[in-house]
Description:
CATH architecture: 3-Layer(aba) Sandwich
CATH topology: Rossmann fold
Number of strands: 13
Protein name: Putative nucleotide-sugar epimerase
Domain NAD-dependent epimerase/dehydratase: 13-240
InterPro entries: Epimerase_deHydtase, Lipid_A_modif_metabolic_enz, NAD(P)-bd_dom_sf
Radius of gyration: 21 Å
Strand content: 15-25%
Order of helices and strands: EHEHEHEHEHEEHEEEHEEHEHHHHH
Organism: Gordonia hirsuta DSM 44140 = NBRC 16056
Shape: elongated
Helix content: 40-55%
Strand order of the largest sheet: 3-2-1-4-5-6-11
CATH class: Alpha Beta
Amino acid sequence: MSQTPALSAPRSVLVTGAATFLGGYLVARLAENPEIERVVAVDSRVPNKTLLRRMGRAEFLRLDIRRPAIAKALTSYDVDTVVHAAPSLMDAAAHSAAIKELNVVGSMQVSAACQRTPSVKRLILRSTAMIYGASSADPAYFTEGTPARREPRRGYGRDMLDVEGYARGLARRRPDIDVTILRPQAILGPRIATRMSSYLSMPLVPVVFGRAARLQFLHEEDALGALEWATLHPVRGTFNLAGDGVVTLAQAVHRAGHLQLPVPATLLAPLAGVLKEGRVPSIRSDQEGFLAFGRVLDTTRMRSELGFEPKYTTLETLDDFIARGPTEPVISAQAWQSMERRVVSAATALQ
């Protein structure tokens, strides 16, 4: 493992997406760091009162990153570090044109504003592992340099491929700017609302018949920790983020005390929407491959180059979500354990 970079606190940090869980709580953490002179929180929406209180001394600016005002903010606050945490897929029930515009056009404006602002020396982009896609032809582990066999052609994954392109273009045009791209695996935790947490909270979980998706998770605290670490430690490059270990979708459903409903792949998204009764964002077509085949990341560079070590494994992340999250078991853990003991006992007796 290479030597961990020395702590290098930025002087003035601007964080986009301050009304989101990751963006808002990152602002709160950075505002508690006395080595950082100024923290600026940006979003087109006002964060909830609890989040605003946690932001402490940070200054909140309500502005749309798709507008030129973002460039004025970078100049006015003499920003040297930008954390672009705004790209989102949880703000609408479907991947609407408005969400796509916010992700792609907004990111293009942020990159352009960074390029025109001499004080900016660092950009940290929260991307996603969804850029790899998911199919039966995928490798066992995705490394940062291994392209997907079938890249996403639509949806959030497609958006983030374009967004990453803007960030790399910035690095070429302004080689004095350190660009760090983080690709977190499916984020799960007791507080953050994601499509995976919504999916695993269903008492009756539709799964693709005949498939055993291999999954990794990244705990919400580790997602925040990685963003904070990358903000404070200057390392160029692209990094996968995930907790150690792999679980199958069936294991995750059973561990939550829920029941599987095997269905054809074409019925997965519509049936999930019916079972959830429209109360949460539905599964989109670009997620069906992930739930059928899964996706596993190689995280060697996360440790050896970025120098970040998650506190939670994939299984610990899942268990913490089950223990403290919004999901309620249909079948208790004790009932599953009793069933397992009976199966083991019966198998032993037959030997």
